[in-house]
Amino acid sequence: MRVLEMRVLALDAATEACSVALLTNGAAISRTIESGKGTALNMLRMAEEVLAEGQMSLSTLDGIAASVGPGAFTGVRISVAVAQGLAFGADLKVVPVTTLEALALQVLEGPGSRAIACLDARMGEVYWGCFGWDDARGVIECGTSRVGPPQSVSLTPSGRYLGVGRGFSAYPVLAALPGVEIDAVRSAALPNAREIARLGALRLAREGLDPADLKPLYLRDKVALTEAERAAHQSL
């Protein structure tokens, strides 16, 4: 089946925004709410809305694309759990898409273009990754996505990169990276289910998983700092 014919429901609650999108006939129908309202009930309600608008049901989908992080622990778990529940019930495959991939797709301009996606990971750190355009998968990772202080972010390979994500607004030092182009719109960007649906459609046939195999990508093992660690960060 051609990508333009794929019918994919996409879910994301990993950041400050909770979004759902239905990709059908090459176009996306989407819903988004912000301010940390990414509850499972909101996500299910929005999924019902986009399916109704698209005059589709879960049983007519080709699969579900789920944001697997990195992002807020609770939000990532909501995205994964809701995707698993819907997919199990409708006997659908799922495809994982990272928040950083979804951000990169917002700005990549075509073959040869590169992006660096950064999200505020709190605790003085950012989630970040470098990506290039890829015809088959939409985006391809240049190296491994990481979490760390903004001073640890580097560009591999060097060259021109389009910066995207709220990590840039949270840590302005990132805009000084050589070769990075950033503006107010891109520095305010969050992942959205629209791009997750597009990437899911590209990958579903070759990379679709059984829902039980869908796993979160946290990057960070800790959700809180000790008092000593907080004091160390405040002294930087």
Descriptive notes:
- The protein has helices at 40-53, 73-90, 99-107, 167-170, 184-187, 193-207, 227-234, and strands spanning 8-12, 18-24, 27-33, 63-67, 93-97, 114-122, 125-134, 138-141, 146-148, 161-164, 180-181.
- It is α/β, with parallel strands linked by helices.
- It folds into 2 domains: 3-98 and 191-213, ATPase, nucleotide binding domain (Nucleotidyltransferase, domain 5, 2-Layer Sandwich), CATH 3.30.420.40; 100-187, ATPase, nucleotide binding domain (Nucleotidyltransferase, domain 5).
- Strands 6, 7, 8, 9, 10 and 11 form a 6-stranded mixed sheet that branches. Strands 3-2-1-4-5 form a 5-stranded mixed sheet, sandwiched between helices.
- Strand 6 (114-122) and strand 7 form a beta hairpin.
- Helix 3 (99-107) packs across helix 6 (193-207).
- It is globular, with a radius of gyration of 17 Å.
Q: Summed up, what is this model?
A:
The chain has 236 residues and is α/β, with parallel strands linked by helices. It is built from seven helices and eleven strands. The longest helix is centred in the middle third of the chain and has 18 residues.
